[in-house]
Specification:
Elements (H helix, E strand, L loop, with lengths): L1 H21 L7 H20 L6 H24 L7 H27 L4 H26 L1 H23 L2 H24 L6 E2 L2 E2 L3 E7 L2 E6 L6 E4 L3 E4 L10 H8 L5 H5 L5 E4 L5 H8 L5 E5 L2 H11 L13 E5 L2 H7 L4 E7 L22 H9 L1 E12 L6 H15 L9 E6 L10 E7 L5 H13 L3 E5 L8 H6 L4 H7 L23 H7 L5 H4 L2 H27 L9 H25 L1 H4 L2 H21 L1 H5 L4 H28 L5 H19 L2 H12 L4 H26 L1 H25 L2 H9 L1
Parallel strand pairs: 7-8, 7-10, 8-9, 10-11
Antiparallel strand pairs: 1-2, 3-4, 4-5, 5-6, 11-13, 12-13, 12-14
Helix pairs in contact: 1-2, 1-4, 1-5, 1-6, 2-4, 2-20, 2-28, 3-4, 3-6, 3-7, 4-5, 5-6, 5-23, 6-7, 13-14, 20-28, 21-23, 21-27, 21-28, 21-29, 23-26, 25-26, 25-29, 28-29
């Protein structure tokens, strides 16, 4: 059981990475729905397996061997799809679900055979999944995406060997071991020859790459197009390497560094003490050094970029830029670094920091989102000197969206710091304005800690006079009547945000979806018509999420149709059965909603999306496993009353987590990482422990009272989880992460209401049977 769930979790989370690379990062959470659908459908399929002749362990071994082969099939099919749309998307969904289907069948067979010890079996189920969570990061770092999927095939074959050993089948055990060894050999060969690898991404063939490496939240490739060396993230976002020899710059090179949009801050603050978030290939570092800076801190979240490419493998491409004594490279999430730093800077810069990459958390923890919130801007401003400035470069659109939302964040954060005239703190310049109608224009928003003085206004005017390629969009003393001017000088910004064509209102850490700019009133129209060229990536999530929700609904219908189609079993009609099944719907949806929100909530506290994924999922699975293991003892003779108390306890502990997560972020900002991980595990454990009790306890109760309905409990729990994984992102976007957690808590209360109703309606005979159970 543990090997099965170990392999299943590794496969599920690795698919989120592959989906992000091959398609778009919005697709990554589809892997979660796929896994839940497959597991649920496989759980129902158990009832077909139960009718087969033969030893139960032999049947489990056969299913596990089929699963190891299904993983290969699903991977080859997935890597052969260029871009999933319509029917192709459905084919990707169901082909990728095949391994999870077999996993679900194996798990349900094992649980059913040991229904009287379901707590113990469920414990090893969750223990294996927790181990898979811990193994995921080293597997991805060492093997890469496709080979980590192949490693799951090896693990499924190993589980088959164990099952055949229990069955006493020597031939089966030998066959499973041989299959596992063949897959190990395939991993070694594939690592060298790339037989099974990504060939197409985002609908296009991959360019020739001279270097490729994976980690848990990105696939990094180094390409050499006709002009510059480029670092490509997930076959999409790119940053070129600054190949300048800073000791021998030509006048034209110096001009190009300082008189582009991101270079203007260094004209205003030459030789500034600088903090750069997301330096990538080093362009902003080169700009700061060219202006005379002697203290540049570059905070890069991706070690493959900053260490492997820029320092270890290809340092000479940048003339060893990241080895200079005046450059301090830090591998960390930029926001987390700022929060724990005690330094103040004259320039704080982030240029086009948007990887569009889904983390292994399933696209729910996009690290760059936490960089662009009101809370983040308040942190940045608090780390500036009185003459300091922060500068952000984003894509320019017409009408403006991202850059205008930056201004909204500046207005909100400045007012929180007591600055009552935000319009005096902001400058906006635009580069490549001729590309505004399509894609490629860049807006640079400069926010000053204090109101602009006359000498700064003079410097910016002089700089723009030397840079005709830059267009002045907003300057306090000119007060233009464009969108930026209207927002900055609006007597009530709320009215502007409400009436503007796009949602550019400020976002905070509880709803950190900076890139999502569709107004709620325009949602359905956007889904029907799609966005214009400027929305190709920015709001692509909207129609994609609706498509995926549609596929998830289809998957839910399939799961619910399996019992009557495969088993000839209709939805139970006996009194109390249908309402009891609602209990499994509530806990299935509630668990996934809470888990998704917790992952995003703790990204900032732990400083990295990978840490949030590992610690949150591991803690929840392990503590839930312990709760499951002890569930029978916990229930004791009290039966239904203790289950009711447990469900209320889940709601209470989850609600406490929702309310305490933000204060914990503030208190623990300077703690060492091991302490943060330990504290996170400790605060998650009580809720996780209680959340591990309701499913096995409810399943035991259902089996004792309505045994025919157990198959429907599997199906409905899986269906609710599928829809919950798709619905979690919608809830987080529109009501925030805290509210999403509270919705999950409310679903556990709803499950408690079902239990209470069952208790009230239970006949005396059944009540006595339950006490006996």
């Amino acid at each position: 059981m543990a090997f099965t769930t170990f392999a299943t979790l590794i496969l599920e989370l690795t698919l989120t990475r592959i989906f992000s690379v091959v398609f778009f990062y919005h697709f990554a959470f589809l892997a979660i729905s796929i896994a839940l659908f497959g597991l649920g459908a496989g759980g129902v399929f158990y009832y077909v397996v139960a009718g087969w002749a033969g030893n139960v362990y032999w049947k489990l071994g056969g299913l596990a061997m089929l699963n190891s082969l299904a993983v290969i099939f699903a991977l080859v099919f997935l890597l052969g799809v260029r871009e999933p749309t319509g029917a192709t998307l459905a084919m990707v969904f169901f082909a990728s679900a095949l391994p999870f289907f077999f996993s679900g069948a194996v798990v349900s067979v094992a649980v059913s055979e040991a229904i009287r010890r379901v707590g113990t079996v469920y414990f090893f189920d969750l223990l294996g999944a927790a181990a898979g969570c811990l193994a995921l990061v080293p597997f991805l770092n060492r093997f890469g995406g496709p080979n980590t999927v192949l490693a799951a095939s090896v693990l499924f074959a190993v589980s088959a060997a164990i099952w055949f050993h229990r069955a006493g089948s020597l031939s089966g055990r030998v066959g499973a071991v041989v299959l596992a060894l063949l897959f190990v050999a395939l991993i070694v060969y594939n690592g060298k020859q790339h037989l099974i690898d990504i060939r197409y991404a985002k609908g296009q063939p991959l360019p020739r790459e001279i270097f490729v490496q994976w980690n848990s939240f990105s696939r990094i490739g180094l390409v050499h197009p006709p002009y510059d060396y480029g670092i490509v993230i997930d076959a999409d976002a790119a940053t070129s390497i600054a190949t300048f020899d800073l000791e021998h710059l030509s006048p034209s090179q110096r001009y190009n560094l300082l008189y582009q949009g991101p270079g203007i801050p260094y004209v205003l603050r030459p030789a500034a003490k600088t903090l750069i978030i997301g330096p990538g290939g080093g362009w902003d570092v080169a700009r700061a050094l060219t202006s005379g800076s002697k203290d540049v801190t570059a905070v890069e979240i991706n070690p493959i970029i900053a260490r492997t490419i820029m320092q270890d493998r290809f340092p000479d491409l940048s003339h060893r830029l990241y080895f200079r004594p005046d450059v301090h490279v830090v591998i960390e999430d930029g926001r987390s670094f700022v929060r724990r730093s005690h330094e103040k800077y004259q320039v704080l810069q982030a240029t086009l920091v948007d990887t569009w990459a889904a983390t292994a958390a399933g696209a729910f923890a996009l690290s760059e989102n936490n960089l662009y919130t009101t809370d983040a801007f308040r942190d940045y401003l608090s780390h500036l000197t009185d003459d300091g400035l922060m500068v952000f470069t984003r894509w320019g659109f017409q009408p403006p969206r991202e850059s205008l939302r930056l201004v909204s964040l500046a207005i909100d954060s400045l007012e929180q710091l007591g600055e009552t005239q935000p319009w005096k703190h902001v400058i906006v310049v635009r580069e490549d304005a001729e590309k505004l109608a399509g894609f490629g224009a860049q807006d640079t928003v400069i926010v000053f800690r204090k109101p602009l003085a006359g000498d700064d206004l003079g410097r910016i005017s002089a700089a723009l006079a030397e840079a005709p390629q830059l267009q002045l969009v907003y300057l306090p003393n000119e007060r233009p009547k464009n969108e930026f001017g209207r927002l900055l000088e609006a007597p009530d910004p709320e009215v502007f945000w409400k009436n503007y064509a796009f949602d550019v209102s400020p976002v905070d850490d509880d709803r950190p979806f900076f890139f999502y700019t569709v107004q709620p009133r325009d949602l359905w129209a956007f889904v029907k018509k799609g966005g214009d060229a400027a929305d190709a990536k920015v709001n692509r999530a909207v129609p994609v999420l609706f498509e995926l929700l549609g596929v998830s609904l289809l998957a839910t219908v399939v799961v619910l149709a399996l019992p009557p189609l495969l088993l000839g079993t209709r939805l139970p009609v006996q009194k109390g059965e249908r309402s009891f099944l609602l209990y499994f719907v509530c806990i299935g949806a509630g668990y996934i909603l809470i888990q998704v929100a917790l992952i995003q909530k703790f990204v900032l506290f732990l400083g990295h999306p990978t840490y949030a994924l590992t610690v949150i999922i591991f803690s929840m699975l392990l503590s839930s496993g312990v709760g499951s293991y002890l569930s029978a003892r916990w229930m004791g003779q009290a039966g239904n009353s203790r289950l009711l108390a447990t469900l209320v306890g889940v709601a209470a502990t989850v609600s406490a987590l929702a309310l305490l997560a933000t204060p914990l972020n503030e208190v623990g900002v300077g703690w060492p990482l091991p302490v943060k991980m330990l504290v996170t595990a400790c605060v998650i454990a009580p809720a996780g422990f209680l959340m591990g009790i309701p499913f096995p306890t409810g399943l035991s109760q259902l089996d004792s009272r309505f045994p025919r309905a157990v198959r429907w409990a599997w199906a409905l729990n899986a269906a609710a989880s599928v829809l919950g994984s798709a619905g979690a992102i919608f809830l987080a976007i529109y009501i925030g992460l805290r509210a999403t957690m509270l919705v999950g808590a409310a679903l556990y209360l709803a499950a408690g209401a079902v239990q209470w109703a069952q208790r009230k309606a239970m006949p005396t005979a059944h009540a006595g049977a339950e006490v006996s159970l």
